[in-house]
């Protein structure tokens, strides 16, 4: 029997889980015995890596060899990290985190090949594909990806009796997602999501670091952070202070540099005031998700917290004030996503490869169901006549609308623009509204047409978005029956995989 595995690939922390023999998800600790692993890499040499707490602890020896928070740069072509004469993209680095998680877990549960990896609900298509590619670079078969709030809701539903409309509030180390769900027994339906891929715990760490710097400067007249090494060291202290402020009203620390030392204190009230702008942003996104769900706060039956940053008292106060309801805190907020991803892996495996798992697991999985939604709209660029300008101009024509339930398929008919048109260029867009300047073109493909076509011949464009969040596109010339399909999905460069596999991960 093959292992059924889910992975929470986080900005600051990652975790891996599997379905046990009775179909229940369990976290697999890393080789150090920790249930979550910091998403930090230290390139000790050109052949050896440290990942996790070891990497954090060794980073001070050479800050140029440590990298973290690269999840925020997934599929950012301008981003790269260099160490020991080699250069890595965020996808490369993420693959090394995945490899570490799987390598450690395999020692305990056996070979791991097929996995589900979680992504922020508001990751765009290129970021989702970059995540799949990271799994492939790590030598894994990514059978599906799942939105982080969806994974958490799925685990909550399987772990406790919740029903009705729910709000999943997911504030992690680097991203924020809020999702409205509709749960009946073990069936979870996602209604709508909103989020910000650049709002999370690391932003709060920076606020603490700014407070530390201001207080140290006031006390000593010198700068706290004078170089990259000291910035890294004090950022770690800021993270520790942030965690302490979740249970203490005031935290004191003795800060030392070559230019002096000072005993500083930071209060919970100071911290809350400084992060109020971020909290207001989360509240706006909650309201957006409610609005897109046609819900009021009073319609929500339960609130689920996910992500380590939800431990901050100001966050809990904000949620309670906004929703007039106490959130559920029944499970570990750091682990719910990985556990839910393992359940998703079980659901996919039962559907696609049932003979490879036990009857007990099959029976447990058949009790559950999850329906996700498209988190963005998908369309294509077309020509549309503009009455005021008295001319044709480009328009983003939406085909799949945001929050459509998955799997979904929808077709629109377009028409050739001129006599003898020999090719149709399909530009696949992601984003809202009809202005092409405000959407992303995520892929293109062409459909060749027969010769001597008249103007105005119909072309049917069909977009299908499957339950594993993979886009399939088809264009068909109605008159001739000629058609062409495209799957929006990246595959790994096998030559690159050899390079990554050459590392020894410690």
Give a structural overview.
- The protein is α+β, with helices and mostly antiparallel strands.
- Helices cover 31% and strands 32% of the residues.
- The protein has 12 helices and 27 strands.
- The protein has helices spanning 53-58, 90-109, 125-137, 148-159, 201-220, 228-244, 268-274, 276-292, 313-323, 336-352, 359-365, 494-501, and strands at 5-8, 13-19, 25-27, 37-38, 40-43, 48-51, 66-68, 81-83, 86-88, 114-119, 141-147, 164-171, 176-184, 187-196, 250-257, 260-267, 302-306, 369-371, 378-386, 391-400, 408-415, 423-430, 440-448, 458-465, 471-477, 483-488, 504-505.
- Strands 1, 2, 3, 4, 10 and 11 form a 6-stranded mixed β-sheet that branches.
- Strand 25 and strand 26 form a beta hairpin.
- Helix 2 crosses helix 3 (125-137) and helix 5 packs across helix 6.
- The protein is globular.
- The two termini are 28 Å apart.
- The model has no long low-confidence stretch (mean pLDDT 91).
What's this, in brief?
This protein is α+β, with helices and mostly antiparallel strands. It is built from twelve helices and 27 strands.
CA distance, first residue to last residue: 28 Å
Beta percentage is: 25-35%
Helical coverage, percent range: 25-40%
Number of helices: 12
In the predicted model, the low-confidence regions spanning at least 5 consecutive residues are none
- Summarize model confidence as the mean pLDDT: 91
Structural class: alpha+beta
The total count of strands amounts to: 27
Given the C-alpha coordinates, what overall shape results?
globular
Biggest beta-sheet profile: 6 strands, mixed
The gyration radius over C-alpha positions equals 25 Å
